[in-house]
Amino acid sequence: MTESDEQSFGVPEMQALLTEMFAPWIQLLQIKPIEVTTQGGRFELPENADLSREGGIICGQAVAAVADTVGVLCLSAHNGRFRQVTTVDMTTHFLRPLMKGAVEAEVTILSNGRRMATLRVDFRQTGKDKICAGATCAYAYLDG
Fold first, then answer.
1. Which CATH architecture has domain 3-141?
2. What distances in angstroms separate CA 142 from CA 85, 86, 114, 116, 137, one per listed residue?
3. What is the pTM of this model?
4. Measured at the alpha carbon of residue 69, what is the angle toward residues 15 and 81, in degrees to the nearest 5?
């Protein structure tokens, strides 16, 4: 990503994509783009009681949905534009519970080719160092 690409597709463009391109139930997750980097980005998932199951643990389905969504947002920023993709593979590992409260998701793009892209998303409780969950996502570009 060049410096001009980085400036042309940042946090405001990610926020606009969330509103315009994703299903209404994804918007209910309240994902907040925080930072765009040359190899990914950072996001916050604010505390949301609707995502917690008994015991105050954030459900795995929400974590997987966030991983898939922030992956598409980071690829858009990396490419300098939104490209239609479809998820072809996602592996999610839960290392320790993500407890009720704000969560940080950090995306690292591992490869971004003409037809496929792969990235990693690490989840931590906001302000903590230990990774609680991680997802590796592979996408196929649909525009060739």
1. Roll (3.10)
2. 5, 7, 10, 9, 16
3. 0.92
4. 55
Report, in angstroms and rounded to the nearest whole number, the Rg of the chain calculated over CA atoms.
Answer: 14
Place of tokens 């907040």: 32
Q: Do 82 and 21 contact (CB within 8 A), yes or no?
A: yes
- Residue 142 DSSP symbol: S
Q: Mention every residue, 6+ apart, whose C-beta is less than 8 A from residue 20.
A: none
Collapsing DSSP to helix, strand or coil, 4 comes out as helix
Q: If you ran DSSP here, which 8-state letter would residue 59 be given?
A: P
- Grade residue 5 by pLDDT with cuts at 50, 70 and 90: very low
Domain boundaries of the chain, sorted by first residue: 3-141
Tell me the β-bridge partners of 120: 108, 136
Q: Rounded CA gap, 52 and 55, in Å?
A: 8
Please name the residues in contact with 22: beta carbons below 8 A apart, sequence gap of 6 or more.
Answer: 69
What is the tens place of the pLDDT at every residue in 122-140?
Answer: 999 999 999 999 999 999 9
How far apart CA 128 and CA 137 sit, in angstroms, is: 23
